[in-house]
Structure formats: structure tokens, C-alpha cells
Specification:
Layout lengths: L21 E9 L2 H7 L15 E9 L11 E4 L2 E2 L5 H4 L13 H8 L5 E2 L16 E4 L7 E2 L6 H4 L5 H10 L8 E5 L3 H12 L4 E6 L2 H11 L2 E4 L5 H8 L7 E4 L11 H10 L8 H9 L5 E4 L12 H6 L3 E4 L4 H13 L11 E4 L3 H9 L8 E4 L7
Parallel strand pairs: 8-9, 8-11, 9-10, 11-12, 12-13, 14-15
Antiparallel strand pairs: 1-2, 1-6, 1-15, 2-3, 3-7, 4-5
Helix pairs in contact: 5-6, 5-12
This protein binds zinc ion (2 copies).
Length: about 400
């Protein structure tokens, strides 16, 4: 409804608009760190009344006449990017870059040169699709996106296939992890924690968690036994140099994005420039990740950025042969392999959940998550007050 204003209101139920649509009755949905960028007003082209939410799952209740793979009654998880499955990008498995799903591509082209795919509940610039923090949602290209999940897996174990699990996974995958590698991850929020878990599964020897909230670092330490740096207390560069014999981590993951915090004076500089819109994003985690990375290493950026940043250390990137990799997650690629790992018990992303609330408590939930109250790491909302079994 406006900056830092979320309300729960009755809206008309979604209808089938295209033969390849389905309508889903949502059983569980989550608030994402990237929803906070919308909530805080840093993503342009949001309109009053837009329905948020890109992490959701539920039961198919209406099926368009052209849909073949999913049936009414199927329990599905839906990827946050919307992909057609047949365009050039989709054929190369670059699903978050689908060329057919952003009807407002022209806006994104102005800002970014070319447009990525449309996303659920993520501004008009990215398609203006109604999101899944709702009782019902329309899902286009239903034969391409949604994955059917087995009845014996509870919502909490599979819901995060929609975004944060594949996002953390892709963040680690982009690091080309080899045995013996040391990976540092900025941000011990839900995506950062899942990137850490993924890096361990991919064979990293050491994973280092960086955050300023002790309760988040505790999750990294207690759940995964990781080394932690609290950047509120410790100089990160120095600490990483000491921990890596002066060389720096082999790869650095930025799981923070455009609203990074940083001690003064540079932190204040970014806050001031962003406030007067001289830069759109505060890139202090990214800058630090670049500077800390070992020569020839990889910086993997999965935190969300919107526009322009300042004081970008390109000299460090160029002279030290760094590789920067990034992207909105190509979720569709990872659905089946990650679901298989969940089924086998190799992965259980539900450890990030700190709060379970009813959908009608969304305003309170956004506030809690934004202000890191009550040790909030991840909120799952369900319309019935309880996730379906
Ligand atoms: Zn998300
Ligand atoms: Zn496509």
C-alpha cells in the first residue's frame, strides 16, 4: 500500500487468463529478504494494491485447457521467475532471463539495457504479476514452472525450492568449489545460510559466515559448525587475511545486496548518497567481498541489486583477475535435483525458519523481519494459520 505499509485486504480471486495457466490455493508462503527492498521503497514501479510474494506453494484448484503436466489436486511448489520454456534463454536453462514473460520489458530495458524474465509479486518493471502472499494465485506456464511434491514431505521442507534454496545453491555453484576451498559468505540471513550449507555439500573445506547479528551467526555456528565474523566488532578484511594465511578466501558470496550496512565513514557515505538518489544501491558488502577475495578468485553475487552503485573497485577486479558471477536464480534448473536431495535427507532448508504466522499477520511479520525483532530469520505465512502436512 506504500513504503513500509503492507495490508491484508480482500481482492477479487484470480482467474485463468491463458490456456497455460493454473490457479493455486496457497498453503504456505514466505517473506523474502528481497521483499524488504520492495517494502522499503527501493524498487521502482510498485503500485498501491500490488500483491507481494514470490515464495509460495499450494494445491492446483483450476487448470487451464492447455496444461498437461499438472492436474487439479496436485501439490506444487512454484519458482519465483516465470519462464516460457521455449525461448532462446529458456532453452539454455537461463530461466530467470526468459524472453517472453515480462510484458513491461520496455521499462527494464531503459534501466538495464535488456529485460530479464517476469517475476511473481516483484514490481511492474518485472511484469506486474500478482504474487503469492495470498490465498490464491494465478501461475502462468504451468507446464514449465511448478514442480509436484510428494505428499510425505511437509510444506516447510519443500517451500524454499521456490527461491532461497536454489538461490543459495546457485550462489555456491557459481564459486566452482574444489576440495580445500575456503568460501566466505556475507550475510547470514536465509539465503546466506543456505549458500553456506550448499558450499559445504559441494566440498568446501571451510566456510566463513559474516554478519552483524549474533543470533544469525549462531545459526551458522550451531547448525553447521562454521567460523563466524561479526563485522560490527571485527575488521572483516583483517580477520579473513588471518584466517586464510594472508591469501583471502577462494570465493566470496555476497548474500546481502543493495541495502548493506557498513561502519562509518563509508557506510554513512552510501546511506547519504542513496537517500538523495545519487546511487540507488548501497554496495558495501560487495566492495568488501571484492577486496577480500584471493587473487584469481570468484565473487558470486546473489544479493539483489537494483541500479547504480558508487566506488566500485574495478581496479581490484581487473588487476587481480577476479571473476564476478551473478544472476537472478534460474530456479527451474535446480528444482528436481534439490527435491531429490531433500527426499534423500541430504538437505533440509527448514532450519532457517524462525517464525510461523498466519497470512493475516503479514503486516506484523514484515515489521518483525525488517527490524530483526525477536531473532527473526525467516517467516513462513499460511492462510490457515498452519502449514499443510
Ligand atoms: Zn525471494
Ligand atoms: Zn522463455
Amino acid at each position: 500500500m506504500g513504503v513500509k505499509r503492507v495490508e491484508v485486504v480482500d481482492v477479487p480471486e484470480p482467474r485463468i487468463l491463458n490456456s497455460q495457466d493454473v490457479i493455486i490455493r496457497v498453503t504456505s508462503t514466505a517473506i523474502c529478504g528481497s521483499d524488504l527492498h520492495l517494502y522499503n521503497g527501493y524498487v521502482p514501479t510498485m503500485e498501491k494494491g500490488d500483491i507481494l510474494g514470490h515464495e509460495f506453494m499450494g494445491e492446483v484448484v483450476v487448470r487451464g485447457s492447455g496444461v498437461k503436466k499438472v492436474k487439479v489436486g496436485d501439490r506444487v511448489v512454484v519458482p519465483f521467475p516465470i519462464a516460457c520454456g521455449v525461448c532462446n534463454s529458456c532453452q539454455h536453462q537461463l530461466y530467470s532471463l526468459c524472453e517472453n514473460t515480462n510484458p513491461n520489458a520496455w521499462i527494464a530495458e531503459k534501466l538495464w539495457g535488456h529485460s530479464p524474465a517476469g517475476l511473481f509479486g516483484y514490481s511492474h518493471m518485472l511484469g506486474g504479476y500478482a504474487g503469492g502472499q495470498a490465498e490464491f494465485v494465478r501461475v502462468p506456464f504451468a507446464d514449465v514452472g511448478p514442480i509436484k511434491v510428494p505428499d510425505d514431505l511437509p510444506d516447510e521442507k519443500v517451500l524454499f525450492l521456490s527461491d532461497i534454496l536454489p538461490t543459495g545453491w546457485m550462489g555456491a555453484e557459481m564459486c566452482n568449489i574444489k576440495p580445500g576451498d575456503i568460501i566466505a559468505v556475507w550475510g547470514a540471513g536465509p539465503v546466506g545460510l543456505l549458500a553456506m550449507q550448499s558450499a559445504l555439500l559441494m566440498g568446501a573445506e571451510r566456510v566463513i559466515a559474516i554478519d552483524r547479528f549474533p543470533y544469525r551467526l549462531r545459526k551458522a555456528r550451531e547448525h553447521m559448525g562454521l567460523e563466524c565474523i561479526n563485522y560490527g566488532e571485527t575488521d572483516v578484511r583483517e580477520a579473513l587475511d588471518v584466517m586464510t594465511g594472508g591469501r583471502g578466501p577462494d570465493a566470496c558470496i555476497d548474500a546481502v545486496g543493495m541495502e548493506a550496512h557498513f561502519p562509518a565513514p563509508l557506510g554513512l557515505y552510501d546511506k547519504a548518497k542513496q537517500a538523495v538518489r545519487l546511487e540507488t544501491d548501497r554496495p558495501s558488502a560487495l566492495r568488501q567481498a571484492i577486496m577480500a577475495c584471493r587473487n584469481g578468485g570468484i565473487v558470486s553475487v546473489i544479493g539483489v541489486y537494483g541500479g547504480l552503485i558508487d566506488k566500485f573497485p574495478m581496479g581490484s577486479v581487473m588487476n587481480r583477475s577476479l571473476t564476478i558471477r551473478s544472476g537472478q536464480t534460474h530456479v527451474h534448473r535446480y528444482l528436481k535435483p534439490l527435491l531429490d536431495r531433500i527426499r534423500k535427507g541430504e538437505l533440509d532448508p527448514s532450519f532457517v525458519i524462525s517464525h510461523r504466522m498466519r497470512l493475516d499477520q503479514a503486516p506484523e511479520a514484515f515489521d518483525l523481519f525488517l527490524n530483526k525483532q525477536d531473532d527473526c530469520v525467516k517467516v513462513v505465512l499460511s492462510p490457515n494459520g498452519r502449514a499443510a502436512a
